[in-house]
Amino acid sequence: IVQRASGEVMTTAAWIRKFVRSHPDYKKDSVVPQSTAYDLMMECKHIGEGTKKCPELLGGINIAPIRATDAYHVHLKSSSMTSSKLQSIVQRYTKRAEEASKRRKLNNEIKEKQKHVNSTLRDIEALQDQLKELEEDPHGH
Questions:
Q1: What 3-state DSSP class applies to 22?
Q2: 94-141 pLDDT, tens digit each
Q3: How far apart are CA 60 and CA 53, in angstroms?
Q4: Where do runs of H (alpha helix) occur along 23-82?
Q5: What does 70-129 look like in DSSP terms, one character per residue?
Q6: In 29-60, which positions are buried (b, 16+ CB within 10 angstroms) versus exposed (e)?
Q7: For the CA atoms of 115, 117, 119, 120, what is the dihedral angle to 10 degrees?
Q8: SS3 65
Q9: Which of 25, 7, 35, 46 is CA-nearest to residue 54?
């Protein structure tokens, strides 16, 4: 994140724009040809699977290659997922999302209130300074 914020590595959006703009089939007319889109997806696949390094996007992070030999020897079965189990999972994630939204709203409200408090404290300090000046020179000299 620090490298991305400092500009040392590209944002994903900037990397995609650079890839599309430098693709030989792109005509710089805002229409992305199917061949360009396909090549972009394949590039992303190779980077994500660790078969291609991309330091301009990932910095020094190296993704270990994904190999079938490293896969778990367990077949995924959707038949074990009952509708009630699926509904329970959906409800749990919905509740999580709602709680996250509430947390964001509360944090934003706290920030706004804190700004107001800080502004009020500055006003109080200014008034106290004025009062101190009057007490130091009660006759206005």
A1: helix
A2: 999 999 999 999 999 999 999 999 999 999 999 999 999 999 887 766
A3: 9
A4: 34-48, 55-58
A5: GS-S----GGG--HHHHHHHHHHHHHHHHHHHHHHHHHHHHHHHHHHHHHHHHHHHHHHH
A6: eeeeeeebeebbeebbeebeeeeeebeebbee
A7: 160
A8: coil
A9: 46
16: nearest Cα among 46, 50, 33, 41: 41
Residue 133 structure tokens: 């000046």
The type of residue at 73 is H
3-state SS class at 64: coil
59 CB-near residues (< 8 Å, 6+ apart): 3, 8, 9
Can you give the length of the chain in residues? 141
Is residue 13 within a helix (H) or strand (E), and if so which, with residue range?
helix 12-22
For residue 2, give the amino acid letter. Answer: V
Q: What does the alpha-carbon distance between residue 122 and residue 129 come to, in Å, rounded to a whole number?
A: 11
* Structure token digits, residue 81: 């997922």
Model confidence pLDDT, tens digit, residues 49-88: 999 999 999 998 889 888 877 777 766 677 777 888 889 9
